[in-house]
Amino acid sequence: MDFALGDEQRALQEAARAFARAELAPEAARNDAESRFPRAGLNRLWELGFMGMTVPTAHGGGGLDHLSHALVLEEIARADAATAVIMEVHNTVVCELLTRFGSEEQKAAWLPRLCQGELGAFALTEPLAGSDAGALRTRAEKRAHGYVLHGQKALITSAGEAAIYILFAVTNARRGRRGISAFLLDRDMAGLSFGKPEEKMGIRASVTAAIFLDGVHVGADRLIGEEGDGYRMALATLDSGRVGIAAQALGVGQAALDLAVAYSKQRQQFGRPIAEFQAIQMKLADMSMQLEAARWLTYRAAWLNGQPGRHTADVSRAKLLASETAVRCADEAVQIHGGYGYLREYGVERLLRDSRITRLYEGTSEIQRLVIAADLLRGMPGGVAAAVKS
């Protein structure tokens, strides 16, 4: 087995690290405090080729592998988790779904826009449909020349800021999950509006808002795949999304370890740096160990994501471990900082707030455990495996 990164992957990782440290990190705290959307940083991501980086070159993307994307995303998140999640959604669920399931005409029309400066959003969640994505109520009524959409989406990353939306709606309520379809929408379509940005605990520079659909007319050419394909496409695409969130979590956890190490070396107590105390050393060692375990599980999941077939359980293991590790590392970083860790000035309190969401979006930690358990128990009658597979 070859655990070494290729030369191109290392070059991408180093370029992303240098950019994130120089341009994203200095603005991250201010953007968080002011809930300021990081438009300048995102524009630079497009200039560097990090937006749409896994899209085929024929459609304007970088044509890179999923592991390369995870490496870059980890470095972006190490500097600013809010910018990272905007990039992650754009690349791993919007670009990915369109690349995998869009028609040739749709890919030719929409992917270059996503790769050249127009932001994408993924509109699946609703007020009464979170982990149960099959419970959607937004409906798409068929008409002679397309569909009319009515309903509401909730907690949508980049809602109102994104120019392009992949939105899921029910085309046949009698078919349940098999009656859900996916559509391409533009931000300025008549009948499409957005709620005010939510006040969030963390990733405050990213916009999270509701979407309202009041008689939005879309042509038949905006349907991705066939009617009823939406739920299947969403689940398949979320594998990529979960690898992305795992990479984001790694970046946040690594930033917490970086700050904890630096602080422990300069903070003096009882006449010497606290890094010399065994209690602090144990914390740092555990943080490092847990991050490395999560990192290699995530890298493996990213590699598998580019291989044939579905690797859902492997992806869920990576997302679960990375997100739980990010929260633990951020919490320990606050503890190592003592009372100063509770102050904004030292940065670790922001990391703790930013880390917490990784256990929730793209599937909660509880959902990841159900997916893993279903894989372990596959073939057994009844129980969790049957529930998750239904």
String of helices and strands:
HHHHHEEEEEEEEHEEHHHHH
Structural class: alpha+beta
Radius of gyration: 21 Å
Helix content: 40-55%
Q: Given the C-alpha coordinates, what overall shape results?
A: globular
Average pLDDT level: 96
Q: What proportion strand?
A: 5-15%
* Assembly status: single chain
Within the largest sheet, what's the order of strands?
Answer: 1-4-5-8
The CATH homologous superfamily of the largest domain is termed Butyryl-CoA Dehydrogenase, subunit A, domain 3
CATH topology of the largest domain: Butyryl-CoA Dehydrogenase, subunit A, domain 3
Compute the number of helices: 11
The level-1 CATH class of the largest domain: Mainly Alpha
Low-confidence stretches: 383-390
Domain count: the total is 3
Task: State the gist of this model.
52% of the residues lie in helices and 14% in strands.
